[in-house]
Structure formats: structure tokens, C-alpha cells
Amino acid sequence: MNRRSVLVCIFLLGSALGSPAQSNPTYVQFRPGTVKGALYKPDSGRAPHVAVLIIHRTANFMSHPATVELSKRGFMVLGMNPRSDNNDAAVDFEANALDVKSGVEFLRKQPGITKVLLFGHSGGGPATTFYQAVAEKGPAYCQGPKKLVNCGDDLTGLPKADGIVLM
């Protein structure tokens, strides 16, 4: 990701107009059934055109403080739980990337959304940066003789996010 993309992310996050946060987020079920999310939108004000996906490699981020705070500032926010929800032993970064993919695709289909940002906090940092690296460079990023474990070709064609915010 280049410097311009990072500056655009900072601008987008800093320039949103304040709006009341969504008082009643919408539950979103993904596949597999262990992947789920909560969608937050401002209760009033202009319709959001920027969406933020917040995910961790294992933790419940459906009610992360940023879901409400970013919603207050005019963003659509999807807090997600990956399939390895609350189970570090079950973490599979390639599978988590597929969970992020489902969130990115879901947000891109929402009316009015023109940009999707990934928000990495704690274990969400490696989950989102791995996803974006493969989305930008293809599975070759995580394949080859110098890799301890090669990822599969099922990571081909991941839709790129428009930026990443790391906490």
C-alpha cells in the first residue's frame, strides 16, 4: 500500500461529519455459520459512502468500541467475528482471509458505499494486513519454497480494500 493510500485513509477517517451512532445494529450471518457480524450505520445525517470492516483473528469485534465511535462519525461499520471466534488453537490465517473477503464483499454491495477500509486492532492487525497483502499480490505472496506453510489457490482474487487503519 502506498503513502497516498495511507493519507487518503487518514483524511477519510478524520473528515467524516459527526452523526448519532446506530442505536440498533443489524446482525449479519455469513458462511460458514460461525462467521458473523454486526452492521452499524449512523441513525441520522448523510448516508455513509465509506465503510469500515473491523475484525480480529479470534475475538468478538461485533461490539468493539470503534463500531459505535466510527458510526457516530458517519461511517458504515461492520464488526465481525471470524470462524476462529474465541479459539486461538483454531486460527487459520488463510481461512480468516476468506472471512475478511466475505465482509469486504458484503460492504461493497451496500448502497452508496464507494470505499472500504480495514481496521486492524490487536489480532486484527495481522489478519487485515495478511488479507490485503494477498489481495494486492495474489497467492504468490504466501506460496513458494521460502514459506513454512503455503497458502492455497482459494485466496486468488481477493477484493482489495481501499485502505487499512492499524491501531
Provide the spatial order of strands within the biggest beta sheet.
1-2-4-3-5-6
Largest sheet: 6 strands, mixed
Any idea what the shape is?
globular
Overall structural class, as computed from helix and strand content, comes to: alpha/beta
Strand content: 15-25%
Q: What is the radius of gyration computed over CA atoms, rounded to a whole number of angstroms?
A: 15 Å
Oligomer, anyone? single chain
Extract low-pLDDT stretches: none
How many β-strand stretches? 6
Which whole number gives the mean pLDDT? 88
> Tally the helices: what do you get?
4
SSE series: HEEEHEHEHE
Distance between the termini: 17 Å
Helix content: 25-40%
Short overview:
By secondary structure, the protein is of the alpha/beta class. 31% of the residues lie in helices and 19% in strands.
Structure description:
- The structure is a single chain.
- This protein is of the alpha/beta class and 167 residues long.
- The protein has helices spanning 3-15, 65-72, 93-108, 124-137, and strands at residues 26-29, 36-40, 50-55, 76-81, 115-120, 163-166.
- A 6-stranded mixed sheet has the order 1-2-4-3-5-6, with helices on both faces.
- The two termini are 17 Å apart.
- The model has no long low-confidence stretch (mean pLDDT 88).
